[in-house]
Amino acid sequence: MSELRLMKGNEALAEAAIRAGADAYFGYPITPQSEVIEYLMDQRPEKRTGMVVLQAESEIAAINMVYGAASSGKRVMTSSSSPGISLKMEGISYLAGAELPAVIVNVVRGGPGLGTIQPSQADYNQAVKGGGHGDYRMYVLAPASVQEMSDFVSDAFDIAFKYRTPVMILSDGLIGQMMEKVVLKDERKRLTDAEIDEKYGSWATTGRKGRERNIITSLYLEAERMEQRVRKLMNKYQRMEEEDLRYEMIHCDDAEYLFVAYGSSARIAQKAVELGREKGIKVGLLRPITLFPFPKKQLFELADQVKGVLSVEMNAGQMVDDVRLAVEHKVPVEHFGRTGGIIHTPEEILEALEQKIVKDGSIRHHTTREPSLL
Known about the structure:
The chain has helices spanning 9-19, 34-43, 45-48, 59-71, 82-98, 124-128, 146-163, 173-177, 193-200, 223-243, 263-278, 296-302, 319-327, 346-356, and strands spanning 3-8, 24-27, 52-55, 76-80, 102-108, 139-141, 166-172, 179-184, 247-250, 257-260, 283-288, 290-292, 308-313, 333-337. By secondary structure, it is of the alpha/beta class. The strands form 3 sheets. A 7-stranded mixed sheet has the order 3-2-4-5-7-6-12, with helices on both faces. It has a 5-stranded mixed sheet with strand order 9-11-10-13-14, sandwiched between helices. Helix 11 (263-278) packs across helix 14 (346-356) and helix 12 packs across helix 13. The protein is globular and about 75 Å long.
């Protein structure tokens, strides 16, 4: 049954995986997402639902275990943080190429390299541009609260199986570590092997006797067959844009200026909207909930209304490129961000809007007190 709890984001996500009817979790500990596997180990879901929880010997081993379980039609998940996700990227590309459903969670920390264990949004490009090799995309959900950390798990599984694709939940160390009230969804029963065979037997390697075998692969040596596969994937991604785009608009009806922010940055930017309106600046917020697909059409239409756009991110400037592409030079687009694990404040965001874009209704192009990179 659904219930109300006070939980960390990482813990809420782990509990949601059990309740979503996950068959297996394969992972490896890394700060700031280690609570995911720690919570799962503590809860002993194999006794509750039969869910398998295994700490692999490495991130590479974990993602290949995901590949194997997904091949048999199982609902399987893994999680890590930035350097660990980099190690998983080859396996994620294989999952996309073989058209296998899986849920991958990235609780982002600062980089590059080993970086810091503090929160960041610097893995945006890695997540939405593919990250691994080849022509593929992932459906990417960006939670902005502990509640969404929980809710998006079952949503991610549904999308993964709808499109037979890896789905990423792109969080960060702030949301993963913060505690909030969360309403947990009712528990789903895991599918039996017979139910999996009935629902997914057309592609899954269920081992059922008396039928033609299925082959799971991403290898196509003939160029024409490989091109057909890529075109099939591209058509799938177009369907995602048409059917499963998610976004939120806040105070956009009369907005003259616009923040674009996701995840933790969107929470902070929402307060900056309130501060701006108290000063008489009509600013709104567009929050992409799916980073791929991205709300390009909505941004394009808002660009006819607003005088300028500020992309607010905890990085040196990544999503801002997609914002600029979406508005197609209709209005100026600037970036404001902090890096190294520093979390921006609402006051800093509003100051950046005023200094970079707003001045008596006109446009200015110069830096704030932050370095020009940001």
